[in-house]
Amino acid sequence: MNSKLVVIAGPTASGKTAVSTALAKALDGEIVSADSMQVYRRLDIGTAKATAEEMAGVPHHLIDIIEPSEPFSVAAYRLLADAAVKDITARGKLPILAGGTGLYIRSVIDELEFPAGDLASEIRERLEDRAADTEPETLYRELLTKDPAAENIIHPKNKRRIIRALEVIERTGRPFSDFHKAWSDRVSHYDLAMFGLTIERALLHERINVRVDRMVADGLLEEARSLIDAGYEQFLTSQQAIGYKEVIRHIKGETSLGDAISTVKARTRQYAKRQMTWFRADPRITWVDMTEKSAGAAAEEILARLGGGFYLKG
Predict the structure, then answer these.
(1) The pTM is what?
(2) Which domains are assigned to the chain?
């Protein structure tokens, strides 16, 4: 029998922390975070990490596990998440994978493969040097001789993906299309129960605005300054660390605080839209409308939809 795994997904500010915590308390579960920024220590306010009070005594895994200076990837996340899920299951608890980073979630539930190697690899650099002096069609023909099935998944003018595919083939000795197959199959090795939180757009935007204002009031600028002092400015401005890069511009005198806050809100709304686009593409998700529900009510609805106490402890 496959191991059980509950997934709680959704956009930022939709209530994932509160719902997953309530669900974990009801199901004797533990939470595995699926958030690409909450893995970093020191990034607390700007990533909206749950407080001890919000965690309500429920164990949370894969939060605060590395320093911002340490390299990290979705492949590394998947290894750690797999280990956490297995450990939770072995102790007789229910693992609940909760978060808004869609790629992290899929890496775990669908066992996606990620070819090893640094992004700035020698292979890629060599291919990019060739591509600078070569038409995409030439590289594309080379790709198809090595991986004919790539014709169905890569456009002949998409130079970036052609380079990536050639790199994967050279690095692994396997066709790039092999790795792509897992993306389209969406076949999980878990006994999977997957739920997504949705919310009326105007209300979600209001929640985002309130959250950003609260972050500023709670000390986002001070946190950003301490990170700069610790030598992490380049990391914060190069990553998808919404909130930090905008207030850093204010700290450096490049924009007003009001403009920085407005930009954080706008970019967070855009990010929430991208998250919903990603999650809506997965037909396995059962949606729970949070527009007029409390976290407790949403958790009760999820429990009911799980059916007949199937996931209930005991």
Answers:
(1) 0.84
(2) 4-110+186-306 (3.40.50.300), 122-185 (1.10.20.140)
